[in-house]
Specification:
This protein is mainly beta and 409 residues long. It has one domain: Neuraminidase (6 Propeller), CATH 2.120.10.10. Helix content is 10%, strand content 45%. The protein is built from three helices and 25 strands. Strands 10, 11, 12, 13 and 14 form a five-stranded antiparallel beta sheet that branches. Strand 23 and strand 24 form a beta hairpin. Helix 1 crosses helix 2.
Amino acid sequence: MRILIRLFVIFALAVVSILGILFWPEAELVVSASPGPRRVRVVETRQVIPSAGLPDDLELGAANNNLDAVRHTDGAVYLALRTAPHHFASPQTRIVVLRSHDEQQWTFERSFALGTDLREPRLLSIEAELFLYVSRLGSDPWAFEPQGMSMSVRSASGTWSDLVPFGEDGMIGWRTRHITGIPAMLAYRGGEMTYQFGEPKQRIDLLRSEDGRDWKLWDPDHGAVYTGGGGEADFAQAADGRFYGVIRAEAGDERGWGSRVCSAPARYPARWTCRPDSRKYDSPFVFAQAGIVYAVARRNLRGDGRYDRGIGPARGPGRGLRSIWNQLNYSTSRKRCALWRFEPDGPSLAFVLDLPSRGDTCFPAVLSGRTPDEKVVYNYSSPLDGVDSRWIEGQRAETRIYRHLLRFD
């Protein structure tokens, strides 16, 4: 039965993709920018991968996408990325780590491969050590099969260890950072339910660690940050001390499909209160700039940008049809990598601007710039000098990695 369902979904995706590309109108609603108290500008965009600053013998696939970047205690910027033949799961996938002191000339650090798909590379700097966390998946390009996580550690001498498994089976690490000086990780389980038709049972946890190796719940008395149809999530602290975050709810639940926009008290960062948003903020990176919380995430250009079209029930046997319709509608529309701003009332997200991007795009990482008014954003995109393709077209073609400099005036 599962094979028949998969074949039906593949057939439906192919048919609707062709019809959508050929005939589906894509009227874009002009979205008013709402920068808030600070005007934001993209003052520079530079292609990083591929570029002349890479090592001559570095081998890369056509798809260079899932990434992370960090400024380590040695003063260098480290960039980790997934390189593969295409966007979908592949046994040829590698995670490549590069290092640079000027973000123009890059030195090869290490490449990791396990003969299966690897995604979500996450870098975390803890004193002199640099940790790389990756999520292992299957090799079936038509399935999302989380296997668990692995880690490698770069010692103070510059040597990387081999990848070793850790954590629970099926766990996917989405974001690593420091919260009030404590190493933290947002991780979720149940990702295999995202593209199934049953009731989702996904769980998002905020974890903490003393050494980057052993992880436990941040707030054992409270438990999960969120349960339902959400997975990818991130958050940051505002000037008033509260935390603001966003969850991608692609699997949907009784509150709908799309996203959840959340907040948490200053003393309890794991206790999120969320409200639904029918837009889907894929691959969110949340950060604070001068006390204001922003997010970089994917933007849907079709219509009013909603992911959840509201066609079909949220629960029961018919929910699968609603999920399929949302996915097909979303896959055949164009995308941007966009900057959003959290508005405390609600809370809600306000659109600020689009970064130069198109096709298959986003999965950002954000670093501090040279001045307090600057941020550096790394993301991936279909070639900026190419066709502004629909998302499903971009997923099957070349993607590159770019560096953008944002100035908050």
